[in-house]
Amino acid sequence: MTEKFLQYIWQNKLFAAQNLTTTDGQNVEVIDAGRPNSDAGPDFFNAKIKIDGQMWAGNVELHLRASDWNKHKHSTDKAYDSVILHVVKDADMPVFNTQKQPVCQMCLNYPSHLEKQYEELIFNSRKTRCEQYISNIQSIHIRTCLSALLTERLSEKTEFIETILQSNNNNWEETFYITLARNFGFGLNAFPFEQLAKSTPLPVLAKHKNSLSQIEAILFGQAGFLASQAAQKDEYVLKLEQEYAFLKHKFSLASMDNSQWKLLRVRPVNFPTVRIAQFAAIIHQSSKLFSKILQSAALSDLQQLFAAKVSGYWETHYLLNEPSPRRSKKLGADAVNTILINTVVPFLFAYGKHTNDNALQDRALSLFEHIPAEKNSTITEWARAGIPAQNAGDTQALLQLKTRYCDRNDCLRCRIGYKILSRQPV
Fold this sequence. Notes:
Blueprint: H1 3-11, E1 20-21, E2 27-32, E3 35-36, E4 44-51, E5 54-65, H2 68-71, E6 83-90, E7 105-107, H3 112-122, H4 139-167, H5 172-184, H6 190-199, H7 202-206, H8 212-222, H9 235-251, H10 272-285, H11 289-295, H12 299-305, E8 317-319, E9 322-323, H13 333-354, H14 358-370, H15 377-385, H16 392-406, H17 415-421
Helix pairs in contact: 4-13, 4-16, 5-6, 5-13, 8-9, 8-10, 13-14
């Protein structure tokens, strides 16, 4: 049992509320448990508590043992002089504030099954700790939980977008371009792709949007892939090098070190060179991409924006100067949907929030309902546990649940965890 668990019991009033008394026999009535404090200082602010009929307003501190008050040096910290009640599991000693005045203490009594259920959750060895309890939770509660998790995930992504937006002087097109590039890295190469976009201003590419070869020259040159000392170079590569040398001087560009790119344990179709070629094709096909996205209402229209065809060279190459059997390098349907899920929909939601356009936010949420569910090990685990994903909105919610709660052992803040912990024993 942890102090965090004790705080959870207090916050949700899961303790026995009748016949509460302080350690010296005074009657206690909890009117308001207070507001949780995530910063330094007492655990709960602005609580309202009646002690022997007298109303007190102030802060509450919780510990497993009363002696933790001294162990944590609260007796010499003025921030704790405002504590009106010290709530503990074990009152092993009296405690005092900095004024040498005794602090009222109360032992917190709660149903024993709560502690047992908490330990079953936290110390469960299964990947999905709550798997054995999911079937006992009503589906309507699961759906409500997923809806809240999706909104939470979109809010986090909105904050990330706003941060980039501020650094770009509120330029939405530039911000979208950088975020799209980052997500084109599909995880492993996200950072170098972001650096590529930041080192290659969008206006530079816009000036050459009618020439795919020039866009490729700029991007491959900026990515550091044209610095190869290969003995034999394709005509295509020699042309890119020539183009890039001129454009680099014209726009005073500085290329990246290509050692940042990851190819080890990456499938050839996901090589950064292939992704850069696809990224170049999209930029060539669609100038002012974010504006077009705002105007595209249908999912099929959005998908079409990212269905760009790479130049012919890349149909027979995965790497520069290294021919391979012919294969289409068009961005696949799953990859397009991944881009929509991680870039397009969050941007629509963020822009709607930024401009107070509720309809645009609703449109973003609606798109999630129409994009197929993602396929990965996390989603498979949740399906096995009894929560199958119906669409991309569900998968994003379940990923949020896994990364923000399950992986952090934070069952106490989880809505599903709350239902499990508060259930009555069979």
